Amino acid sequence: MSQHRSDLENIESLEFYRETLKNLKNTFRAEPTVVAHDLHPDYLSTRFAVST
Fold first, then answer.
1. What is the spatial distance between Cα 24 and Cα 42, in angstroms, rounded to a whole number?
2. Nearest to 24 by CA among 13, 34, 32
3. Mean pLDDT across the chain, nearest whole number?
4. Could you tell me the residue ranges of all domains in the chain?
5. CA 48 → CA 5, 52, distances in Å?
């Protein structure tokens, strides 16, 4: 749930994504119930999705 942000290849990108997600959740008063992610276990996006 965000605008296109390219790859989450570093901590700065992941932090920007977290802030964007927080802002969108607040704006739309929404709480996602499903998280889709890549199957590659070393991607930051996968680690983030699994940890939420």
1. 26
2. 32
3. 87
4. 11-51
5. 15, 6
Give the 3-state secondary structure percentages of the chain, helix then strand then coil, rounded to 5.
50, 0, 50
The answer, yes or no, to whether residue 14 has pLDDT greater than 70, is: yes
Tokens of 32: 């996602």
> Which of 9, 17, 1, 20 has the alpha carbon at shortest distance from 42?
9
Q: In this structure, which amino acid lies at residue 21? A: L
The number of angstroms, rounded, from the C-alpha of 10 to the middle of its chain's C-alpha atoms is 13
For helices 11-28 and 44-51, give the axis angle rounded to 10 degrees: 40
- pTM equals 0.74
